[in-house]
What we know:
The longest helix is centred in the N-terminal third of the chain and has 14 residues, at 76-89. This protein is 35% helix and 21% strand. By secondary structure, the protein is α/β, with parallel strands linked by helices.
Amino acid sequence: MIWVIGGTKDSRDFLEKLIIYTKDVVVTTATEYGGKLLENLGIKVVCKRLTPDMMLEFIEDEKIDKIVDLSHPYAVEVSSNALVAAKKKEIDYFRFERKEIPFFPEKYTKFTTIEELIRYIETLNGNILVTLGSNNIPHFSSIKNLKNCFFRILPKWDMVKRCEDNGILPKNIIAMQGPFSKNMNKAMIEQFDIKYLVTKQAGSTGGEKEKIEASQEMEIEVVYLTRPHIDYPNFYEDIDKLISAIVK
């Protein structure tokens, strides 16, 4: 049995190709929303956050012999735990990450930690569009220029509530479902008089390219939270090559 750690757009693209060869697959996602991305594929999907001990039990219960990790590039804890579980159970581990965008805008700043990024954000004058996802919202709750920050999140009640619980006013919440085109990003930058756009180095399928192009054309600064790097075994950036390695 192949265990796919999913929940991303990449994981659906991968599974749509993998099930041509085998449906001996079980998928886990951390959220119900991630599970919905995988509906109608005809495979078992478990929507639950797994602790390290739960991962070991899951491998035993589902008779897993391969782990294919397509979790988000910033979900470092999940990937690290899965890698440890694979070593303990002496099974194969494969990792997929989308390719990084090979260019930067003229104006940009990069940070390796959210704490460094927040300290920089507090020094800025002007409106800021934050597109880091709802999990990072609590980091912004105490900054002195919170009123100048606009948060683009998924239109889900729990994410909107997280914003409100952290002192973010409704007028600063942009609850919309992507993907966002370059022109849509430009329209938001203009509408909210944005001077800085905060984003992760998520890669092409994360909408980063369209954000960069819009920021470049609108002549605003991009503030990056850089992608964490782990020395993964069996690392792939091409889905077809990954599938070939798994089903060979």
